[in-house]
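Researcher: Can you fold this with GMT in place?
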Amino acid sequence: MNIAIVCYPTFGGSGVLATELGKALANKGHNIHFITYQQPVRLAGFHANIFYHEVRVPTYPLFDYPPYETALTSTMVDVVQNHAIDILHVHYAIPHASAAYMAKQILAKENKTIPFITTLHGTDITLVGRDKMYSPVVTFSMMESDMLTAVSSNLKDETYRNFDITKPIEVIHNFVDVNRFHKKPVDAFKKLIAPNGEKIIVHASNFRKVKRVDDVLDTFLLLNKTIPSKLLLIGDGPERGRIEQITRDCESCAEVKFLGKQEQMEDILPIADLFLLPSEYESFGLAALEAMAAEVPVISTNAGGLPEINVNGYCGYMSDVGDVEDMAKNAISILKDEATHRLFKDNALAQAKKFDINNIVPIYEKLYERLIK
Ligand code: GMT
């Protein structure tokens, strides 16, 4: 099949998932055309059947806001016309679903039928899409999508709760390439970060408010009183400066390191002993799943779709949002002895395998085949 994928090219989970899906489909012999405003961060290296089409947005002094959606739509039309595209798959509703709808209408005038799938990822529904400046367009373009998918049952429920739509939504959970993440930790790297055998605690996110990075820090500081450990904070975003300042002003924060944005999570996660994700909301929590695939137990909240991947007392623990005492207590209970830690690590891997790329990608392929027919 010739498949066009539209996504955000950034470190956010929706872009990561869309890029990994495209790469997996390309490995299965499909031709994949990414349409984005920048090369997706996870799209490094050369793939013979992956093509990247950059959305160029011409500016003009009249435009206070360059019309990205118009440029995106025109790029979609061009790619579909010139690369015999069979299906368009857009990730994140805003503005991708309405652009796809418009592209579909333009192509219909030229007797080209192009089905499009919209995959809902989270904030497009739970945060941004609900804003009344967006919701009529999001509702309309969801209804006009040939197929709607959501990355968790929770997100499906949230969509019905927040939008007046009647269309069926198919839940297709996010996935991880377990083989890529399940690596032996590099001892030298681990020693460099934790020279005295301290435990390595990791958090990775886009440092938005919804991630509650303060709770990461507070949980770590409580945990560090009992278990000597180091905290690696990976990623960047609006909250980073503030959190970084807190750690500079705090004496017990010497063990906290900011690594910034990292593309090769599969090289970092295997050295971690525990992953913290105390988010206010996660539709899914792809970062936690990638950690599990690297055999890392997860301490998370029980918000949104997190209970669909984390299993309390098995591969990690879940606490109420903001309950840092409980998160620290649970973290200590996992790390307190090697045997318990080993058990949670094994379980994390077993749990991640349920969401392995080989189980999920064929579901998307079948969906495409069904729609093209
Ligand atoms: O977490 C973010 O703020 C980024 C956002 C995105 O769209 O890139 O992530 C959402 O999609 C991911 C992939 O499906 C999910 O794993 C995240 O849980 C979800 N984030 C939220 O719901 C806050």
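Model: Folded with GMT in place. The mean pLDDT is 96.
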